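Step 1: inspect the first sequence and its tokens.
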Amino acid sequence: MDYHLLVCDDDRTQAKNIATLLKMSSIILEEQDIHPTIDLIATDAESVLDYLEFNSDLNNIIAFLDIQLDENSSSKGGLDLAQKIKTINEKAQIIFITTHEELAFLTFQRRINPLDYITKTTNQRDLQRRLTETLELAIRKLKEFNYIKKIHSVIKLVQGL
């Protein structure tokens, strides 16, 4: 099954670093016949939303987002983007990757229900491990969602007979 990874961080270097680490995670998962691909590396919310609008039939979306998506220290652009992604695709998995630990509570206030909240670290090995673990969890959640959806469809079919 294919999984579509989206990375959005206003710092292009950070976005590329996250994407590189996710590519390494993907190689590990491909050994289990799981195929995550990085579809988009963006530095702004509009690029992500344009991509999703143009690819409206995408399923199995996993978004890795920075909470602050511009230089403005009061910006919560990543939170707004996460809410919009969830509106477009309710089963999309949201993972925040940020240096702003203090903003984690806002994800609960807004009921975004992110899968994880990863603090950026200079230790690339720790970040790699955490990204891989979270990517595996996101894939497991999407598989569960798809399985439940199939069972629900079968039940509706049987009830219709």
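Step 2: inspect the second sequence and its tokens, then contrast the two.
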Amino acid sequence: MTIRRTVFATLVSSLITGQALAHNHHDESEYRQHGAHVHGVVELNIAQDANALLVEITAPGADVVGFEHAPKNDQQKKELDNALKTLAQPLQLLTFSADAQCTLVDTVVTETLTAHDDKHGDHDSHDHNEHEHHDHDSHDHDEHAHHDHDHDHDHDHEDGSCNGQHGEFSAQYTFNCDNIETLTDMQSDWFKHFATTEKITIQAITNKGQKAGQLTPAQTQFTF
């Protein structure tokens, strides 16, 4: 399952993709849209719309909380809650050029870890009913073996590893910058909060043009 795209995220995607195609960066665009979910890699998209900066971050659950399934105990529930609170405070994660005077005006944070748990529960219920039905079948032994196979299949779902389904986080932020023409760089403290992330890939499109780059724990500043 992929995170449901908001109008905000769609705008960022269309702006970046359109600019990429205009500059013959088709391969970069294809990777951003269809690239595999990779542990250790967070995607960050930035788009300028007049005086507004639209920021979209997509991160694997493993990079944020260390797991990609619904919380299984109190400790994991606490980690999920803390992560959502941190993501809801982007000023702790991103800092733009002081002269640009950027102010946060909107924040939307979502996750799909718990959504997977709901789906898993529905799947379990379905298999249970199927098994009860097969108990009255004359081929109980064969059907039971098949049910055991289904159970193993469900177990993979629980760990978020079946059919490429991985829980992830999405955050969309809107900043209004009074002097956006003076925007030159962005500093990220992401790695201080989510230490398992190895790198952040960035696609940015502003009035200065399109620019791609990446951040690492040793390089946390992006220049527009």
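Step 3: confirm your contrast with the notes below.
The two ends are 32 Å apart (CA to CA). DSSP finds seven helices and nine strands in the chain.
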